[in-house]
Amino acid sequence: MKVLVVDDEAPARERLAALMDSLAGYEVCGSATNGVQAVRLAEELQPDIVLLDIRMPGMDGLEAAKHMSEMETPPAIIFVTAYEEHAIEAFETHAVDYLLKPVRGERLKGALEAARRPNRAQLGALEGPAGDSSRSHICARVRGNLELIPVNQIHYFQADQKYVTVRHSGGEVLIEEPLKSLEEEFSEQFLRIHRNALVARNSFAGMEKNTQGCFEVVLKDTGERLEVSRRHVAEVRRFLKSL
Known about the structure:
- By secondary structure, this protein is α/β, with parallel strands linked by helices.
- It has two domains: 2-130, Response regulator (Rossmann fold); 137-242, CATH 2.40.50.1020.
- It has helices at residues 10-21, 35-45, 61-68, 85-88, 105-114, 120-124, 127-130, 179-185, 230-242, and strands spanning 2-6, 27-32, 49-53, 76-81, 97-100, 137-142, 145-150, 154-160, 163-168, 171-175, 190-194, 197-200, 204-209, 215-219, 225-227.
- A hairpin with a 5-residue loop joins strand 13 (204-209) and strand 14.
- The radius of gyration is 21 Å and the shape is elongated.
């Protein structure tokens, strides 16, 4: 079985790779140093199992695991952590398995033997502990491949029937997440200006009336204009005054 090793510390990756060398039936197909790289390699290499560190800079292991669950054939996730055992209780039931650092050979062997490709219901349980904080990236499928868009590069979300357009610094993608849930998750970073639009707070350049007398938000850098509904004009005005 192919195993992807993910840890931001080189000694930890090397130790896991060395332990894997002594086990028959498994091979390390690649290694990653952060969550974003892990998701991209998982999509490219299609590992059977991912040994996934939890605490990493940027995207942590819990968020990376959620993105991997969007793959057509999700890998089995084994979390690797330096947490004390009492802290593991918070997410223990949401992982396929977990290993405490420093990882022991016998424990690794047992976890690998128990880990198989989980079904989507199992991976859906990963929503639990990671759901307490907003994601650092939005995951979209573009031409059959997963694409990760950093939330801090997104200008706005705009709903159109069942899809939401994610306009970002590198272009735009479509996702199928409800605008309401995006608003709840990213309320500190985005402001609703219309029933169909959320705009990044750091993308506002101002608000102006158009020739029809309707208010529009003007975005920084791009100069794009988005309609502001009457019910949200006051809130947008208050926000702009606070800048």
